[in-house]
Design brief:
Radius of gyration: 18 Å
Pfam families: ABC_tran
Number of helices: 9
CATH superfamily: P-loop containing nucleotide triphosphate hydrolases
Order of helices and strands: EEEHEEHEHHHEHEHEEHH
Family: Belongs to the ABC transporter superfamily.
Bound molecules: adenosine-5'-triphosphate
Structural class: alpha/beta
Domain ABC transporter: 4-230
CATH topology: Rossmann fold
CATH class: Alpha Beta
Number of strands: 10
Number of domains: 1
Strand content: 25-35%
Largest sheet: 6 strands, mixed
CATH architecture: 3-Layer(aba) Sandwich
Keywords: ATP-binding, Nucleotide-binding, Transport
Protein name: ABC transporter related protein
Length: 237
Amino acid sequence: MGCIRAEGLVKRFGSVAALSGVSFEVGCGESVALLGPNGAGKSTTLRILAGLLKPDAGRAAVCGYDVQARPREAKACLGFLPEDAVPFLNLTVRENLQYMAVLRGLPDSAVDEALKLLGIEELADRTAASLSRGNRQRLAIALAVMHKPRVLLLDEPLNYLDIPAQQDSVKLFQSLKSSGSAIFVSTHIMSVAERLADKALVINRGRIVWQGPMDELREKAADAGERIEDVVARLMR
Ligand SMILES: Nc1ncnc2c1ncn2[C@@H]1O[C@H](COP(=O)(O)OP(=O)(O)OP(=O)(O)O)[C@@H](O)[C@H]1O
């Protein structure tokens, strides 16, 4: 069973066809990057998988649960880091984590664990509003992973992070993957896709136009004497 399954997803916004029949699967323990130009349908795909947007046709399932028919089970098994995630700004870092721990039915110890995991112990009593953009991103990552989700949906996860925090976050995502979680990451930054994912899905105008191992993209680039960005840009045109 795939940890993430999308079958024939269709989504329109008025006259705009955001998704026109998107199907793919991400196995448990697999990491896949979703690449595509602006307006290709990446956020729409992530929002459907997270159960935040209803597709017009097709179905999405995480951990075997249809996200529309079994929303509680699906949401319990996934973690979603939206782009520019905004925690509760008037709560402290610790209070944000405590609130999420209650919603997720986690023990109190999960809060200290998450603070430590993201290296934000010293920020615990600061309000989220007072944090720098990078530290706010660390908190958002902590909130998305504190229940060790089996499916992790990430939108530009390394934005704003300093270099050590990027390294720590990559390690954290990799350790979740090693323990069997599926990682699905949307990014415009090719080096981020290469660091986080073993496979790539290229979407353009609401359709998957290429899918395969990241190594295949690297080989194509090496064969043509190009950078991997050049190969991917061509696939997106
Ligand atoms: N709420 C909405 N109302 C109207 N149109 C929308 C809405 N959300 C998305 N769209 C449109 O659907 C298409 C796909 O948008 P989506 O945000 O999924 O693209 P994306 O690949 O995430 O783009 P980007 O890389 O620019 O963030 C775009 O044409 C967008 O304008």
